[in-house]
Fold:
Amino acid sequence: MNKSVPFEVQPLNATFGAIITGIRLADITDTQFQQLYQVWLNYALLIFPGQNLSNDEQTAFAERFGELEFKLAPISNVLKDGSVRSVDANDDVMKILKGNMGWHADSTYMPVQAKGAVFTAHVVPDEDGETGWADMRAAWDALDNATQSRLETLSAYHSLHYSQAKAGFNQSNDGEYSGYGFHDDNPPLRPLVKVHPETGRKSLLIGRHAFGIPGLPEADSEQILDDLMDFACQEPRVYYHHWQPGDVALWDNRCLLHRACMWNMTEPRVMYHARIRGDDVTEAAQTAQA
Structure:
């Protein structure tokens, strides 16, 4: 318990993350926000049980961290009429939901990687449907010196086209999904080792969108990236949250990976995602779309 802040901080049983209680996010003061921001930089993932934020309240809270990358987006298998989507393999929205079950960081396939996200649970299944996070700072720290030295010389391209196709979820050209993140131009190139712009800590920048390490054969590149994912996303560097309606999660996309978990997709699951835009300098790719 941290007595230096006016809310309760209960660290998770992992290398990162904390449960935050004793604060109402919709009514947070500027002073409380600055204190919360520092706790967030330290723990990278904050879970706020039972906040029950409205969409407007969620957006307003996310905007305190900076400009949003896009307006509040539903992450949902429920149609506008309230019915649950078919688990049809040709449903492009379902393809995205299933693709998101692979470990990833948000918007690494965009010219500017996201800073973070505020995620809320509205309707959740009785079982399963958790969200997992993985600490890429602790993963970096756990590597031996020789591996660290080699990785600091390497980069990888990032593409949503690539990751969806690798998972077997090729998107149709005229499907219902809006197409956000799908580009025809050259994919961004990002170093495998990222230095956090505010804390200075190093972390691995990997995930399902990463591929094609320049200078290496395709098979060698894929092996390195797969091995890093297997190594990084293990206890005590992972945490899975079982959602209750009203829960809020805030995470730092600059040092964590995350993934959705499977559930009985005939049951509704409705979440809302507010993605915080990254800094144009610190989160820019080495190469980016025009």
Observations:
- Residues 8-276 form a domain with the Double-stranded beta-helix fold (CATH 3.60.130.10).
- The mean pLDDT is 93.
- The longest helix spans residues 218-232.
